[in-house]
Each structure stands twice: as C-alpha cells, then as structure tokens.
Specification:
Blueprint: H1 13-29, E1 37-40, E2 47-49, H2 53-58, H3 65-68, H4 77-89, E3 93-95, H5 97-104, E4 110-114, H6 118-127, E5 133-136, H7 140-147, E6 155-159, H8 168-182, E7 187-195, H9 201-210, E8 215-220, E9 230-238, H10 244-256
Parallel strand pairs: 1-4, 1-6, 4-5, 6-7
Antiparallel strand pairs: 2-3, 7-9, 8-9
C-alpha cells in the first residue's frame, strides 16, 4: 500500500517549481482558441489546507510558496491560480496541480484525473464536484491506456509520481515512450526529484536518449530549502511548446532570487 501523502509537502519548493511551470504551459496552450485535453496520472487531492496538521508538521511550505511566491510577477499564471484559490476557499488554502489546471482551463476543455490512494481519491472527489472533470480511482498508468490518444487531441499530460517504488525510475522512460507513440502531438510533462544519491540520473539519461528534443528544467535547492534526500526539482517535457525557454527562465529567476 502506498503511504505518500502530498498534504505533508504541499506548497514546498518542488511544488512551486512544478506548479509555476505547469500554469505557464497551460496559459500558453489556452492562448489558442481550440479546445484541449488535460490528463493527470498522479493527481493527489487537488487542494491543501496549509494550517492542517500534516502541513504544519513539516512546515515545508515556509521554504516554498511563503519564500518564493513574492518573486513572481503579479500577473504570472501561477499567482493568478493562487489568487483564485484563496478567493474561493480562503487564504490558508494551496492548490494542487489539478486545481491549478481547472482554474487555467476553459469550459470546453476536457480534464481526466487519476488517483490511486483511497483517502486521497475521496478528498479529490469532494474537491472536484464539477461534472466536467473526469475522476478515476485507479492506477494513473492505466488511465494512459484508456484515454490516450484523447479527444480533443491537443493537450498536455502531467505525470507527477511519488517515486515510492524504486523501479519507477527504470520503468518511466518506457512508459513515456508508449504515451508518446499513442499521442505524438501531446505535451508530456514529467516531474522528478533531484536526488542526492543520483538515483534519478539513469532515468534522465534514458529519457534524453529516447527524446533528444525533450526540454529539461531543473532547480537546485539551497541548503535551507532541501528536504531530506531531495536536493532539487526537475521537469522533463516532451513536445515542448514554443516559448518554453522563456517560461523556464522566469521560473528559474523566481526560485533562485
Ligand atoms: C506527488 S503526489 C501528486 C501531487 C499533485 N500532482 C500536485 O502537484 O498537486 C503523487 C500522488 O500519486 C498517488 N499515486 C501514487 N502512485 C499512483 C499510481 N500508480 N496511480 C495513481 N496515483 C498514484 C499518490 O497517492 C499521491 O497522491
């Protein structure tokens, strides 16, 4: 049984990195009039109360959103998502990636979210009563089999595993190969931790060999923002949209200033 619960880590520096990049990518994709599909394989609960016992126990958000939020421009799509969340739920709430996606997308876009943990899935259901969002209590990799290639075909899949099972590092490049073969126009965004023991490096080499045009964006945490064995946060993007260099530069500046 999986034990990872994102509530302990919500709003930490890795969240700021992945969520700010994701919001900018969705902002870019919604700049065109055509509808799109958003798929997320490892959704979590979608909304986190930073005054809850889990968040207070680790206090990771203090070295994340509380530290770096002010470094983003007011009109940055990530800050817009945070603002809408606070207006809707209260100032102590922090949005997970599914909530940020919902807030970024338009009524005619399609959303598919998978979460395997029973308690996290129940919370996800409670937070997403919106009937236009499709929720799946199942292994996110099976969602890939059932909804990909999606309709509409334009879109993005966000893959944010908890890496509790160490074989994931070996399996992910193969799985992304399948995703890309089935959906060659989809933007694929994978999050990975930068591990002090270098366990992620083999996976990255493998990804870069398979997808030489993939875009890699990494933030190395300073010693004050390091959490346990994680020394930083990385994203690997297949089919990166035009403009991703600028998106990445803005996020680097916010997280390293
Ligand atoms: C890092 S958290 C996701 C956080 C979320 N993407 C966000 O940024 O707000 C990973 C989640 O994946 C779930 N999970 C782990 N393995 C899974 C699998 N094979 N399929 C679906 N969900 C899984 C965990 O229960 C956990 O809630």
């Amino acid at each position: 049984m999986l034990s990872y619960q994102h509530g302990f880590h919500a709003g930490n520096a890795a969240d700021v990195h992945k969520h700010s990049m994701l919001c900018s990518l969705l902002d870019y994709l919604t700049g065109k009039d055509k509808p799109l599909t958003y798929v997320e394989t490892h959704a979590g609960r979608g909304l986190y109360d930073l005054t809850a016992a889990e968040a207070r126990k680790t206090g990771e958000f203090k070295q994340g959103i509380h530290l770096f939020g002010k470094n983003f421009a007011k009109d940055h799509p990530y800050l817009q998502g945070l603002k809408k969340t606070e207006e809707r739920y209260g100032t102590s709430f922090y949005p997970g990636s599914p909530m940020l996606a919902l807030l970024s997308l338009r009524p005619n876009d399609h959303i598919h979210l998978a979460e395997m943990h029973p308690r996290e899935f129940r919370a996800l259901e409670a937070n997403f009563s919106n009937p236009s969002v499709n929720l799946y209590h199942q292994d996110g990799w099976l969602l890939v089999d059932s909804v990909i290639p999606p309709t509409p075909r334009r879109g993005l899949i966000f893959i944010d595993p908890s890496y509790e099972i160490k074989t994931e590092y070996k399996e992910i490049p193969v799985k992304l190969g399948l995703v890309h073969r089935k959906w060659n126009v989809g933007v694929v965004v994978l999050w990975y931790p930068i591990l002090n023991d270098g366990l992620h490096l083999k996976m990255l080499n493998n990804l870069q060999k398979r997808f030489p045009k993939g875009f890699r964006h990494e933030i190395n945490f300073s010693s004050s923002t390091k959490h346990r064995q994680i020394g930083g946060s990385g994203l690997f993007v297949i089919n990166p949209p035009y403009g991703i260099q600028t998106i990445g530069r803005e996020v680097t500046q916010a997280l390293q200033s």
